[in-house]
Design brief:
The complex is a heterodimer of chains A (141) and B (151). Chain A has 141 residues and is mainly alpha-helical. Chain A is 60% helix and 6% strand. Classes of the chains: A mainly alpha (141), B alpha+beta (151).
């Protein structure tokens, strides 16, 4: 599954800020950590802000902080903010014998979409943060 | 409430025949299907062998949770693995850590028998259960479930 850069960035920003909910992260700091331009980061943060996932302020003491509940925000919710047509069916209109083939391809792609959607809808930011910490602990042992 | 007026604790124990009725009632409440024969045959398996376990959670005398698991080896080509076949918690007793404790109990059962992989299968639409297992570190394994209707 290939997500747009903005979507990936949004997920990274949400996980990063949700892992330290009391901290305000500057745009420059986040842009440097994740290798994105501050211009693109600003657009991502604006969308996350409208969705009430993060709070951001401008200025020298400004920054971005996570304000939602990481136990209730799923990866799918973040992805849908940036890719609302993720599961759209772009199949051509079937004509004659092509109908069976198009239906079968649609069925297989539907299988994949269903599993992907279920997985992304079941993984919250809290799960990502917790499992990352668990794997870090396992590596350090 | 106990006779002293205190809220009873949640206790965990191996299931016995006396629990089958309460298990079927819980099953009916959570899944809509009672399946008493299923629970009885799985209980029998825990009595006759050492590779299955059936643990229940009680609030006082009421059964409010259960977990059922088996160690399986070489099904689907997989080395010995601990399978969780069912885990339920009464809707009125959720968010109290009961399911987490049941999972911890079954992990102890599996690891005590040299098993270091735990596996389960769940309906693709069961987001609640999927979130629960993911929260406890389970992720998609190398096997895929396939099925078809027999014509």
């Amino acid at each position: 599954m290939k997500l747009r850069k903005a979507t990936q960035c949004a997920i990274w920003i949400c996980v990063h800020t949700a892992a330290s909910p009391d901290e305000l992260f500057s745009a420059r700091e986040l842009a440097e950590i994740y290798g994105i331009s501050q211009h693109h980061l600003a657009k991502v943060i604006r969308t996350l802000s409208f969705a009430r996932l993060v709070y951001s302020t401008r200025g020298p003491r400004g920054g971005c902080a996570f304000i939602a509940d990481p136990k209730r925000v799923t990866l799918m919710q973040i992805i849908e903010l940036f890719e609302p047509d993720l599961e759209s069916d772009h199949a051509p209109v079937p004509q004659g014998d092509q109908e069976n083939y198009i239906d079968e391809v649609a069925r297989v792609l539907g299988e994949i979409n269903r599993i992907a959607s279920a997985t992304l809808s079941s993984i919250t930011l809290q799960v990502i943060i917790q499992n990352a910490a668990r794997r870090r602990g396992q590596r350090e042992r | 409430m106990t006779s002293s007026g205190q809220e009873p604790e949640i206790t965990f124990a191996l299931a016995s025949e006396a629990d089958l009725r309460g298990v079927a009632e819980l099953d009916l409440l959570v899944t809509g299907q009672a399946k008493p024969e299923f629970w009885a045959s799985n209980l029998a398996r825990t009595v006759t062998g050492d590779t299955s376990t059936f643990i229940i959670a009680r609030h006082g005398s009421k059964i409010v949770g259960l977990i059922l698991g088996t160690i399986g080896a070489w099904e689907f080509g997989s080395p010995a693995t601990g399978w969780v076949h069912a885990i339920f918690v009464h809707p009125d007793f959720r968010n109290r850590g009961i399911a987490s404790e049941l999972l911890a109990e079954i992990k102890t059962f599996f690891s005590g028998r040299g098993i270091n992989t735990i596996r389960t299968m769940l309906h693709v639409d069961d987001k609640l259960l999927m979130s629960f297992f993911r929260f406890h570190g389970l992720s998609a394994g190398p096997y895929v479930e396939l099925e078809a209707t027999i014509d």
